[in-house]
TrEMBL record:
Region (Disordered): 143-162
Record InterPro entries: Methyltranfer_dom, METTL25, SAM-dependent_MTases_sf
GO molecular function: methyltransferase activity
Gene3D superfamilies for this protein: Vaccinia Virus protein VP39
Keyword Methyltransferase included in the entry's annotation: yes
UniProt keyword annotation of Transferase present: yes
Positions in coiled-coil regions: none
Residue ranges of domain Methyltransferase in the record: 66-343
Protein name: Methyltransferase-like 25
Keywords, ordered alphabetically: Methyltransferase, Transferase
Species assigned in the record: Acanthisitta chloris
PANTHER family membership: CGI-41 METHYLTRANSFERASE, METHYLTRANSFERASE-LIKE PROTEIN 25-RELATED
Amino acid sequence: DDPTFSGVFCENSEKLINVHLFALAAKYYSLSNLGVCTPLEDILEALKGDSQEATGIKPDEFMNNKKSHEVQVMSELVDNIANYCGIKQVIDIGSGKGYLSSFLSMQYNLQVYGIDSSNSNTNGAHERNRKLRKHWRAYQSRGRANLKSQSLEKANDRPAESETKYKTINETLLNNANSLQSQDQAITQDFIPSCGFTEMATSETSIETDADMATRTQSHERKLSEEVLDILNVLPADAVELSSSSHCDCGELCEEQKVQRKITSLKTKASKLSESNLYFPLTSCITAETELSDIIADLQNCMIVGLHTCGDLAANTLRIFTAKPEIKAVCSVGCCYHLLSEQFENQEECCDKVWGFPMCQYLKDKGWCCGRNARMSACLALERVAVGQMLPTESLFYRAVLQVIIEEIYGVTKSDRHVGKTFSKSSSFIDYVRRSLKKLELDDSKLPDSCIMDYYEKYKHRMNELEAFNMLKVVLAPCIEVLILLDRLCYLKEQENIAWSGLVKLFDPVKSPRCYAVIALKKQSC
């Protein structure tokens, strides 16, 4: 409807006639250009307050570069949200092999439950737990050493300045930290709530003396020594073995000694358990109706997170968050848009089903539908293509010709089976077709090699057309993704128990194309 882009398509044939204007329109309606995202730096500054520094564990020591980038950025945000809301428990939905879960536990001392529907992923997470346990004490020692080294550097490098200058700097920092809360009342209440737990720090900054540094280091060491006690929250009341009466006559002990022995026993038990369980991997299929208390016995005030939750799982994560009062915050990064279920895609009436799209009432009232092709396009990575990581044209061509063969030779237009990553395992187009037919459980004996190559030669000259078509899909991808993400954001805006919700660009899109997080915090009384 925007007259600026009215010349993109022909009014009569509705065909694309201006590619340049099409690209400009796609960029105009992309998330990065709409101005609806909250900068990550702003939300971190508003949340941090006077939080302590974390110990220096590097995630790239036990995961690849892409995963390391994602885990490091997201875990910092999750920790700040948890600290702001005064919670220690995190539920990681679709946790996979536990990369985010284990890092949140190790780096930030959070009690994390990782829930995944795949037994193999849960088993993999347990195996990573076992391996990480070997490095647990080394990470703690290194963390203490790094913290002490950083404190010494700050104390030595910081120049002597007047109290007036420090006061001015501090006032500026405080103004910046509270800038997001200084908007009008409606926006203020909708951005970062107090959650009834913590307030933004207002104490003046001063030069850190040797005594201050020693106190902070001792405090951090006490925190590390007390980490083992956090694990007690997941134990049933009768799970802790107290000291055996065979070693002493407990009846003759004073109350103070009894309490001390009990605490010692609890620490010993918790220490053993915490070393073997950096976090808690669980296997369960999560739906919108899932009761987390049925899965997690000690469920308490917590936040729910998801790093690249697939298809409907991202939508269900938000629904669980809004429905459960004990969940105070959510941070969800979705992916696999092509696997979303759509309410209006097939025009099937199914009142009881919970759909992945649309979520908000506005799009439901309009009966909005994307369709599978559009959702597939939303998964493409424009930023990667822009820096020279081109689309796999040959494999896409193989897949397109295969579809023609399946439709014309076998009469199959739809199948629940998938070809998967067959191209990388194939030595030629003939080999690719035969491998694919076997995966689809179709009889390849009725298809001679010559017939397969006839199809290849028939469409080979159109490979450039296919590449151009896919490039147009790449350009359009951000527009489709923004529709899905704004649908989720609008759903949260429609809920009365949400104090603030927003979209935040977390990751470098070249490293991690699905880089936007949907974040929300509950109102204080909810």
